[in-house]
Design goal:
Pfam families: DUF3142
Structural class: alpha/beta
Organism: Novosphingobium chloroacetimidivorans
Largest sheet: 8 strands, parallel, barrel
InterPro entries: DUF3142, GH
Protein name: DUF3142 domain-containing protein
CATH topology: TIM Barrel
Helix content: 10-25%
Distance between the termini: 21 Å
Length: 248
């Protein structure tokens, strides 16, 4: 998500461990006293093409895999970035990195075809995630794009998006409500490149304004001190860790 290839792309949390309604329970995760993000303490991950999957990843509950991208150039198509996976165990999210929203019908067909191939290969496909750096002031236009995309998705496929921390502070409440009525979750990025963004605590205090289920995107080996209010927010569904291939 965000800057390629280092930023998490990088689509429901119950507060009880093992709840069937939740694929990731933040309350069940343990962290080192150093507050460094140890991926092995979490259960949902984003994996960039070319980053080797650690052996323990097969025990994950969910894995977000960057499948392809739609670049900003005129006439661009969906560009696959990996072969169709065959991953027993974790539920998979097919992630598309997006640089433009004026999709042609060919792009829509290519993305739908990729989803069909992933399902036909025997994977448990949870949904499609769109990784687009939507400006805080441009959320209304983004909502229109997502509404059109949503109606095209096959049954059983959820829709996830990535989001910037700025949204919770400066996003138009009406536009955020529109997004909340379209997507199943938003993964809020707390880092840039390989490092946690300083001052993330202040941004995260406004997450309740999103009005939709969200997860927090963390970066492997980044710093993290979870704000106390997150445990009380019913819309908080857990964490997604962006793996850097550090050999954890």
């Amino acid at each position: 998500m965000g800057d390629r290839p280092q930023v998490l792309l990088v689509s429901r949390r119950a507060l009880l461990c093992g709840s069937a309604a939740s694929l990731l329970v933040a309350g069940c995760e343990t962290r080192k006293a150093s507050q460094t993000v140890d991926p092995r303490a979490y259960q949902a991950f984003f994996l960039w093409p070319g980053v080797p999957a650690p052996p323990w990843l097969k025990q994950a509950r969910e894995v977000y895999l960057l499948a392809g991208e739609v670049r900003h150039q005129a006439g661009s198509r969906f560009e696959p970035l990996r072969a169709t996976p065959r991953v027993p165990g974790p539920a998979l999210w097919l992630v598309v990195r997006v640089e433009r929203l004026d999709w042609s019908e060919a792009i829509h067909r290519d993305v739908q075809h990729a989803l069909a191939l992933w399902r036909a290969a025997g994977n448990r496909v949870a949904g499609l995630q769109i990784d687009f750096d939507a400006a805080t002031r441009g959320l209304a236009g983004y909502a229109r794009f997502l509404a059109d995309l949503r109606r095209r998705l096959p049954p059983g496929i959820q829709l996830s998006i990535t989001g910037l921390m700025d949204w919770s502070a400066g996003g138009d409440p009406r536009a955020l409500r529109q997004l909340g009525g379209i997507v199943d979750e938003i993964v809020v990025q707390t880092y840039q490149g390989r490092r946690t963004i300083p001052g993330y605590e202040a941004y995260l205090r406004g997450l309740a304004k999103l009005g939709m289920p969200y997860r927090i995107g963390l970066v492997e080996d980044g710093s993290w001190n979870p704000p106390a209010h997150l445990a009380q927010d019913p819309n908080m569904r857990g964490y997604v860790v962006f793996l850097l291939g550090n050999g954890s």
